[in-house]
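User: structure tokens for this one?
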Amino acid sequence: MITVLIYDAAGNPLRWRGGLAGRSAFDVQFSSGLPGGFLEAAFALPRAVARWAGVQAGQTVEIRRGTRVLWLGYVEDVRRRQAGDIDAMTVSCLGPYQVLQQRLIADVDYTADQQGSDAIRQELTANCPEISADYTHVEATNVAIGPLAKAYVPVGNIVDAVLAAGNADGQQMLFAIWEPPRTVAGSDQLHSRSVLENEDFEAGLVRVERQRLCQR
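Assistant:
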């Protein structure tokens, strides 16, 4: 059985009349691919459930079969859908890879000494708060990607530029977003992580039992 879980900012699952709000979801659809991992997802909720449970953009969504996570991403939009006797809200979601492609940086203006890893931290913090509130785990590249001046650039393009530049030791860099540790009960606070790493990086952040949501 497929179950939808929707989490608030504190990492607690949204509830409705004593149960999980996501259990009322229907018309569940999701996709994944390479490169990128989890892509888009969508589902519908009865309007009363969506309204009173407080479903809104930026919340984390998991689609599970039992304890297995089939898809993980974030609410992008909630819209009313009315047809005949059906009065529902359609919830559209983006996976981490799609968030990087959809979020546009209005004005990129990097000087010649703009470090790539600093640029990633800056743009993810400003444009992708749903992925994480803490990007301190991004490893320093010590390589500049400036000067660069453009308008309306996807965050993913900046990630690609940093990966192409590598680090000061000439190593190729990888960018990954890891599935946060969580139980079905959802009582623990969400700790999603973004990691910029070189191929030999083996610190505690990299754990084989954790699913990699986005790899570039």
